[in-house]
Amino acid sequence: QVQLVESGGGLVQPGGSLRLSCAPSGFYFRNYDMSWVRQAPGKELEWVSSISFAGTRTYYTDSVKGRFTVSRDNVKKMLYLQMNDLRPEDTALYYCARGGKLSIEAGTRGQGTQVTVSS
Q1: Mind listing the pLDDT tens digit for each residue in 48-100?
Q2: 64-86: string of b/e by CB count within 10 Å (b at 16+)?
Q3: HEC profile for the chain?
Q4: Cα–Cα distance for residue pair 84/18, rounded to 1 Å
């Protein structure tokens, strides 16, 4: 059974940083591309970033390029999203999901972790 558990969210001031983590279980993590998606209140689910199964290729939506960095540790079986220079518009519930940008398995999302950017 695929399970993903996100953590690391919180309340941060504009310009601050957070590091999100995602702990997978129930599948062979190193075989899969992985993604981060987010959902702001009243808005649709938005793709944020993806990373290839080996971690050699990364992709970002335009609004986070240069500020967010996705990474993974296939030995520790963990997925990360380092978020710098956070803006109020980054406020959302963040989820990790199995699959790359074009193959996200939205149903594999965990409970999410809330990121709130506010002064």
Answers
A1: 999 999 999 999 999 999 999 999 999 999 999 999 999 999 999 999 999 99
A2: beeebbbebeeeeeebbbebeeb
A3: CCEEEEECCEEECCCCCEEEEEEEECCCHHHCCEEEEEECCCCCCEEEEEECCCCCCEEECHHHCCCEEEEEECCCCEEEEEECCCCHHHCEEEEEEECCCCCCEHHHCCCCEEEEECC
A4: 7
